[in-house]
Specification:
It is a single chain. With 357 residues, this protein is α+β, with helices and mostly antiparallel strands. It has a single domain, classed as Nucleotidyltransferase, domain 5 (2-Layer Sandwich). The protein contains twelve helices and 14 strands. The protein has a six-stranded mixed sheet, sandwiched between helices. Strands 1-2 form a two-stranded antiparallel ribbon. It starts with a strand and ends with a helix.
Amino acid sequence: MGKKKKKTSVGRKVVNAVIIVFCVLFIAMGGLMVWGHSALSSMYKPLSDGEIDDNNILPSGLTQEEVNAILPGAGDNLTDDLISDKDVYNILLVGADDDGNSDTMMLISIDNKHQKLKMTSFMRDTVVDIPGKNGIYRYKLNSSFNAGGVPLVIETIERNFGVNIDKYAEVNFECFRKVIDILGGVEVTLTESEVDYINERWHDGNPLTGGAGTYKLDSGKALVHARNRSSGMWDYGRTARQRDVIRATIEGFKNTDVVSMLRIAASMMPYVNTDMNPQELSQLIYKAPTYMNYEMEEFRIPTNNNVEEKTVQEFGGAVLIIPDIEQAREDLEDFIYNDIIPEGTMPSTTDRVRSGE
């Protein structure tokens, strides 16, 4: 494992879960290789530096000096030394909605050394140092997306947490729904509170019944569940639910037939951007059946034992402050590269239901 300097150009891509890594297995069919190459080319968007609007980083009406009085230390936590490993491939997935917001920032690490798929959620209200166009700003991670799209998200995560991001993809939530529909739904384990939450917000004439348990969710219900931050543990719970849905989607792909794969590929094209070129995607796709049989593990930044929750009226709600950024970097390095799961990550909903919580 080595360290390398920050790349000067960071890409313009984002995502919600699994699509790029697992959706396009159809390419493995030799008879469709030419069509597949053309389809993959339509998703490829070269990297660019992008435009940063510093005015969109901080809350309206607040200056950095005023924010510094509340969140001191802007610029103190950035690093240019990034950890990388030839046996680990990191893909940043960011889910964007039609309003230009990102609810999901997740790093999918393909760990070939330990034969594992690792999912790391970055909570959007985490306080980070954001490298703006005209200076360093200290505010919520999600603001980096609002101000500079994925290029700024990439640079912000890399320079705060010291882990190299190899590739990225951007997926609109509408693509997420189409994929789940073609799969015929995904099986997700829910608490009773989560069942009630879905029933209150998704009225399709087919409510969930039976209390806590495992259900097959259609795309509408699955998306409501993935964005639920009300049924316990606030945003911590929401990121755990997102990982549950991603895990279920990956499981759904394992038994998908060729026709469904082609339908998924055709439906996803308008909604996906990635800096993986067709050749890189093809190599990834060829190996996808192997990757999908890797053991899956989950992590989250910040951890329960390295976070300070603070409600700030000027910010319109809570922020999550990481007291020890060096410990956070060490925890992330251990999880991705050293096959050590640090303490302090909320277990998945499935695990909580099985343990009777």
